[in-house]
Amino acid sequence: MKLNKNILIFGTLTILAFSSFAIFYGFNSSGKEIIKSGENKKTTTISANIKKKASIPIIDPENDIPYSPITFDTLGKWVVKGPKPLANSILPTNRIVAFYGNLYSKKMGVLGEYPGAEMLNRLDTEIKKWQLADPKTPVKPALHLIVVTAQGQPGKNNTYNLRMPYKLIDSTLSLAKKRNAIVFLDIQVGHSTLQQEIPLLEKYLKLPNVHLGIDPEFSMKSGDVPGKRIGTFDAADVNYAINYLQNLVKSDSIPPKLLIVHRFTRKMVTNSKDIKLKREVQVVMHMDGWGPSDLKKDTYKQYIYKEPVQYTGFKLFFKNDIKCGKPMMEPKDVLALYPQPLYIQYQ
């Protein structure tokens, strides 16, 4: 599909009805569409025949671990910035395939669109596709649950968000147990902050199979209502999340944590070069815009590849990606990206 101009469509209003019969309004994050950037038109070619000059190691003063900026080896492979993964880390030896959404809404993603058993069977189907496409990389199933949803109204706390009840997390953990899946708890802060929201989830984040996701799109530092414009996190916000998770790993002697950071524009994550990596926390910069495959690939190149942090992710939309009349990208198409994403999310 040929686009004559760049278009950005914000989330449509979704009604969530709970068992208490209270009605809340939240934004459906499936309404994201990516923008094809007009910046950085020059392409970069990596030659396998050119040996890169070795970087001078930098010492992480807290962990006393040498690490180097992103470089490429003689085969042109992606060399991850940061400390060497701990022995029980999930990445980079596995690929995570996750279903995203909220069990209370059929419109926020595949996680809540189908009854539990059917949803898990559909997840099994996608995992088999990835196993066939890349048999050398084991696949780890995951359920990615939005536990704090952005709202169009301020609410009683004037935070423009809604915190899900703990019983929703418990239900998701029960579903995950049936597939030995890991669980991500995703936060849309609205007018709140990560400092306010993350500690409320601590009892779950202490579990070895529970990890964290943060969504800059709905971090409205500008004071705008969520959905009116795209929000932002700074490296300082990401570093807060990293440090919080690191402290949990150290204090409770649990396996390393994963942190998913959503991104589909440059301003969604400012000063990304200042993100400080820790060996206890693996950071995934996740391209989660929707649209035709050429725009998705371009967004991945502009905001994930060109601003490397550590690991990378890629999102596929069962419905929105096919609105242009073309099929959704298959695993083989995603594996053709550079670097190959190790976190795959379906909505």
Tell me what the structure shows.
With 347 residues, this protein is an alpha/beta fold. It has one domain: TIM Barrel (Alpha-Beta Barrel), CATH 3.20.20. 22% of the residues lie in helices and 23% in strands. The chain contains eight helices and 17 strands. It has an eight-stranded parallel beta barrel, surrounded by four helices. The protein has a two-stranded antiparallel sheet with strand order 1-2. The protein is globular and about 50 Å long. The relative contact order is 0.15. The N terminus is likely disordered.
Q: What is the helical fraction, as a range of percent? A: 10-25%
What CATH first level would be assigned? Alpha Beta
Q: Compute the number of structural domains.
A: 1
Average pLDDT over all residues: 82
CATH architecture: Alpha-Beta Barrel
Radius of gyration: 19 Å
How is the largest sheet built, in terms of strand order? 7-8-10-11-13-15-16-17
Q: Secondary-structure element sequence?
A: EEEEEEEHHEEHEHHEEHEEEHEHE
Q: What structural category arises from helix and sheet content?
A: alpha/beta
Keywords:
TIM Barrel; 8 helices; 347 residues; 23% strand; eight-stranded parallel β-barrel; disordered N terminus; globular; 17 strands; alpha/beta; two-stranded antiparallel ribbon
Question: What's a concise summary of this model?
Answer:
By secondary structure, this protein is α/β, with parallel strands linked by helices. The chain has helices at residues 110-113, 116-133, 166-177, 194-197, 202-205, 235-252, 293-305, 331-335, and strands spanning 13-17, 23-27, 58-60, 65-67, 71-72, 78-79, 95-101, 139-150, 161-163, 182-187, 210-214, 233-234, 257-263, 269-270, 281-287, 311-316, 343-346. It has an eight-stranded parallel β-barrel with strand order 7-8-10-11-13-15-16-17, surrounded by four helices.
